[in-house]
Amino acid sequence: MSFYHYHRWMLASLFVVIPIVTTQAFDENNARSLVGSFYSNLTIIAGEKFDADGSPKEAAVLAKYNSIELCSTENISLPNEFHQFGFEGNDRFLGALTYLGRLQNFANAYDVVFKANILAVEAQEEIKAAKSENATNFYNVYVKKSIAANGKTKSYTDTVLVYAQKGKIQNIHNITGGGFRSGGQESVLNMRGEAARLFASKKYNEAFKMYLQIVKKSPTEGDAYYRLGLMAYHNKGCKEVFKNGRERRTKALEYMEKAEKYGNDEIKTYAKRVLYYMKNGSV
Question: Quick check: helix, strand or coil at residue 22?
């Protein structure tokens, strides 16, 4: 990048405004907008080849800067899809700064077509013991992504974890990045995205059935058990599934115990609290 272009980029960067939001102000629409902006920046980077002097174009540099600003740190984990195209190493995941730099090099090496579409936004909800408790702390945003380059087209379902208190992206996983288990997991990820979409649309009967299919196919899906536990406890989408209220509450407890056992760190924390509320009659 020339000295002139560098200072134009620095000047533009000064006017990039990243809103500061509190947990109370941050909702599903904010999470959707945040993640949408991140993937829009990736699309810009993927569409730009280097200048004739071998430096990244100004639009790509600014998009890279904006992408980092949307992450909690420059070292959050992103899946490395590039190795599936035979490009620059076989790391299973990359830090955000490394990922963006590799995307720039990848776009310069090939004619890349990068597309992304948000499938659903799912709040990591808890059963609240009191109205004074904090609002949702995390959101899962499911993104359908495709990358075409070097004669290949690959599709992925990204799960983007958004930390509401900071209004930032915490990490991104898909089957390529090593964030999930293998063995039919790609279809499970697609099912999770569809289940989240159904739940967000308040189609609870269909969502409950989908989550049951997920745990049948992959019995260690803590996130699905957590959602089943919440829905069973609140009698959403399962009125025809259980014989009576006692059976339903027993299953809700069982689902939540499995969520605590198999979930990631966030799910384990939520499930532990919900179990306390369930067992102590605080909900």
Answer: coil
Q: Are residues 134 and 274 in the same domain?
A: no
Are 79 and 93 within 8 A, CB to CB? yes
The answer to whether 118 and 143 are in contact (CB under 8 A) is: yes
Structural domain containing residue 238: 180-283
pLDDT at 138 over 90: no
Report the distance separating Cα 74 and Cα 227, nearest Å: 31
* Count of structural domains within the chain: 2
91 and 102 both lie in a single domain? yes
Q: What are the CB-based long-range contacts (under 8 Å, 24+) for 73-78?
A: 76/169, 76/170, 76/171, 76/172, 77/171, 77/172, 77/173, 77/177, 77/179, 78/171, 78/172, 78/177
Last residue of a domain, one of 164, 179, 194: 179
Among the candidates 179, 200, 230, a domain finishes at 179
Task: Examine the domain organization and report whether 141 and 187 are in the same domain.
Answer: no
DSSP SS3 for 182 = coil
CB-based contacts of 122: which residues, under 8 Å, 6+ apart?
A: 139, 140, 141, 142, 196, 199, 200
Q: For residues 203 and 241, state if they share a domain.
A: yes
How far is the C-alpha of 180 from the C-alpha of 193, rounded, in Å? 14
Angle in degrees, CA 195, 198, 200, rounded to 5: 105
Does one domain contain both 188 and 148? no
Q: Are residues 34 and 140 in the same domain?
A: yes
pLDDT digit string (tens) for 181-203? 334 454 676 677 778 778 877 88
Q: How many C-beta atoms surround the C-beta of residue 13 within 10 A?
A: 13
With H, G, I as helix, E, B as strand and everything else as coil, classify residue 233.
Answer: helix
pLDDT band at 13 (very low <50, low <70, confident <90, very high): very low
- The whole-angstrom separation of Cα 3 and Cα 60 is 16
